[in-house]
Specification:
With about 270 residues, the chain is of the alpha/beta class. It has helices at about 10-20, 45-50, 65-75, 95-100, 145-150, 165-175, 195-210, 220-235, 240-270, and strands spanning about 1-5, 35, 55-60, 80-85, 90, 110-115, 125, 140-145, 180-185, 190. The chain has 2 domains: about 1-190, Alpha-Beta Complex (Spore Coat Polysaccharide Biosynthesis Protein SpsA, Chain A), CATH 3.90.550; about 195-270. α7 (about 195-210) runs parallel beside α9. The protein is globular and about 55 Å long.
Length: about 270
């Protein structure tokens, strides 16, 4: 199984503690843990070696999360590949749940992803997948030949966004379906959103994804959709000072996306002749 990391030893420690041989119910000789480290500092190397000697550390390629996951696969030995992220907390029966699901006969599986912490304010987020259908890279398993058959993660996605959605859709295009494994549970604690400038920058990956698939988002519709989603979350989640800050954050993000849109369109849409 593969855990990509990037300068988050505090979170990585909690994740690896959940994967320890004396914690996971799957026998230790039936799985391996690969930590692929994309950080420019190599502090995770000594950290993993000292605290988690049963895990294997590998230096990442320093080209973003897609490349980092591909690097982990290169160092994995098994016919099955399991993915989670360094800010996730796999439950004790996580790997056992996947191992027992193999008899379903599928080549691709997704697990249940929860957020037990909840969302304290509108400025916190986490992926939640309690019934299936998303196939996010924080909790999935697939055969190595299925992974290699589509070329792995697309390394042109260098930001932390859309690389697993692109991966999922290319699996679908190749004719793969997947099975939801409710027993393979990972908890993803809520994390604080990055600022609106970074959020707007991350939207470039979203535009690139849809443009490549021939359906680029429309400028005005997309801008209003981004604003609507943010304001809806502000309304639905607990209020407080963060909610006050979240409103201008939402408008700044939408404004910056609108401003960057012409540049992304020029970059990712083919010029008509």
């Amino acid at each position: 199984m593969i855990v990509p990391t990037y300068h988050r030893n505090d979170l990585l420690e909690k994740c690896l503690a959940c994967l320890a041989p004396d914690v996971q119910s799957l026998p230790a000789d039936q799985y391996e843990v690969i930590v692929t480290d994309d950080g420019v500092k190599t502090t995770a190397k000594e950290f993993v070696g000292d605290k988690f000697p049963w895990a294997r550390w590998s230096e990442g390629p320093h080209r973003g999360p897609a490349s980092n996951r591909n690097n982990g696969v290169k160092h994995a030995l098994g016919a099955w590949l399991v993915f989670t992220d360094d800010d996730c907390l796999p439950k004790p029966d996580w790997l056992k749940g996947y191992a027992e699901a193999i008899k379903e006969g599928s080549g691709v599986y997704e697990g249940k992803t929860t957020c037990e912490s909840g969302f304290p304010t509108p400025l916190f987020t986490a992926p939640v997948n309690e019934t299936g259908g998303f196939l996010w890279s924080c909790n999935m398993m697939l055969r190595r030949d299925a992974f290699e058959g589509i070329g792995g993660f697309d390394e042109s996605y260098q930001l932390v966004s859309m690389e697993d959605i692109d991966f999922r859709e290319r699996l679908r295009d190749a004719g793969h379906t997947w099975v939801f494994v409710s027993e393979a549970v990972v908890d993803h604690p809520a994390r604080r959103l990055v600022g609106p400038v970074k959020l707007a920058g991350i939207k470039e990956s979203e535009y690139m994804f849809f443009a490549r698939r021939g359906n680029p988002p429309k400028w005005l519709n997309w801008t209003w959709q981004i604003l609507y989603v943010r304001l809806r979350e502000i309304y639905r989640r607990p209020r407080g000072f963060d909610a006050v800050k979240a409103v201008p954050y939402a408008f700044v993000e939408a404004f910056l996306v609108a401003a960057k849109y012409p540049f992304w369109r020029k970059r990712y849409l083919p010029t008509k002749r």
